């Protein structure tokens, strides 16, 4: 077994009266439509296997109805699967007793919700301290930690407000602070920023990335927004009809979409903000300016047009020069 | 065509035998168990008598002061506080102080009893669909059966007095608190509950940390209704020996004393309005967090 933090193996979830009775048919390849039409069951998750690396940000992307929110709820078993395995640190979540499961949810995973899920009758301070109180930590202890995380998400001064007094963006900061306060190393984010308007969403993405640089949690991030997926994800899995259609880095997905469905998806995005120089290296390195391999094309264009012969050298992670890229191929890559 | 015009009934003799059988059965039951049941309710009687005596024997200025403080604590409104104190003063001025204190005592004890039984029952109903489908018809019966009907077995079992009166009041006043507790808990936002589960809250932590607090406005509406219904039972309860404002009303009915009836009736109305407004105000204050204000 790999050293994945979370490992999902051949997961199936069928909703309906007797899921087990139709599981075999689904395994044989019965489609979601046929299952619904002839057997009156809904296929939620269809043979999903996914390894989520520690300290990384795994995005699971799909349109509504693709099963992404169902999938994330399997990780902390808010939903029980019909078949399959879920391992966290090599430990089978499905074999856990009620008590072990509660401890998993208290100490090892935490969650941020699309609709925030704040406790409306508690003030912000008590909301952020909630996870710690559930863990059984003392009042002073949990309050101190809560104040720290409220400050980290930029909500100082709002400790004594009620959630209803805050805007959507601020409420989700509370949700994020509540999730971070428990010190769990897995952070599950279910469309966490989808309910926010675009500007606030970008701001929250920034906050998340900034915190992640320092905290190195294992984050599973669900979204239906491709731009968000490409901006945040170290690794992206695209889900359709409950099955993973493609997974890989943002670049891999943009440069080599697995099928027409994904091609459709990625055709309107700003490729200059996704593709990096390293993937276009071709031929020998010219004399002159050197750019690192992970420079975004968008940022490289200016350098390319200024460079002699409109061609720059590209260095790899260690600083070694691996080759060159010219302006023409960069522009082609952006407008493919 | 006899068959179509006469209903196929059981027959007079059989019916009489059946009724006699049930009556005799219940009489035997109450002979057998009456004392034990009375002993069971004895602590309740002692509490009721103690509370009644406390209210009646405490000097009136202290009671008026206490009423003022309680109304203020519940409503935070000077107008309501002054109004309530003035209403009680008038009640005393018109010679109904003693009866009003007795009514206050039985209403308070009945409400405490209903809350103590009703809230756990409501919680049980909210947690189990089976409990809900069993208890709901019982509540329907309790609310709709004419109160005189259940006075009969209660009196047969416990005789005439305060405890049977209290039980009669509770049978009538219990349903709203049970129903509204159940409803309030079932209406708690699923997303909030899911969040609590995701953070590893146990069932107990979810119940007391999330469900009951969020159901409080509904639970309070239930308590309010329970108090109102208990007050509505005051006159009927006085028929089986409960002291209080119902007794003069009953006397007024049988002797056609118009003024006596109206005065005591208005005293009951005054109590009802004070209870209602104060408990509603308190319930509203509990919901401060729902609006965008309040500290």
From TrEMBL, chain A:
User: Its domain of life?
Assistant: Bacteria
What InterPro entries does the entry give? Answer: AAA+_ATPase, ABC_osmolyte_uptake_ATP-bind, ABC_transporter-like_ATP-bd, ABC_transporter-like_CS, P-loop_NTPase
**What are the record keywords, sorted?**
ATP-binding, Nucleotide-binding, Transport
A GO molecular-function annotation: ABC-type quaternary ammonium compound transporting activity
For whether the record's keyword set contains Cell membrane, the answer is no
Q: What is its EC number?
A: 7.6.2.9
* One biological process term in Gene Ontology: response to osmotic stress
Catalyses which reaction(s): a quaternary ammonium(out) + ATP + H2O = a quaternary ammonium(in) + ADP + phosphate + H(+)
Start and end residues of each ABC transporter domain = 30-266
Sequence similarity: Belongs to the ABC transporter superfamily.
Which PANTHER family does UniProt cross-reference here?
GLYCINE BETAINE/PROLINE BETAINE TRANSPORT SYSTEM ATP-BINDING PROTEIN PROV, GLYCINE BETAINE_PROLINE BETAINE TRANSPORT SYSTEM ATP-BINDING PROTEIN PROV
Q: Please describe the quaternary structure of this protein.
A: The complex is probably composed of two ATP-binding proteins (TmoW), two transmembrane proteins (TmoV) and a solute-binding protein (TmoX).
State the protein's name: Trimethylamine N-oxide transport system ATP-binding protein TmoW
Q: Which organism is it from?
A: Rhodovulum strictum
Automatic annotation (TrEMBL), chain B:
What the entry lists under InterPro entries is as follows: MetI-like, MetI-like_sf
Which intervals hold domain ABC transmembrane type-1?
A: 100-279
- Gene3D superfamilies listed in its UniProt record: MetI-like
UniProt keywords (A-Z) are:
Cell membrane, Membrane, Transmembrane, Transmembrane helix, Transport
GO terms (molecular function) for this protein are: amine transmembrane transporter activity; carnitine transmembrane transporter activity
Transit peptide in keyword set: no
Tell me what this protein is called: ABC transporter permease subunit
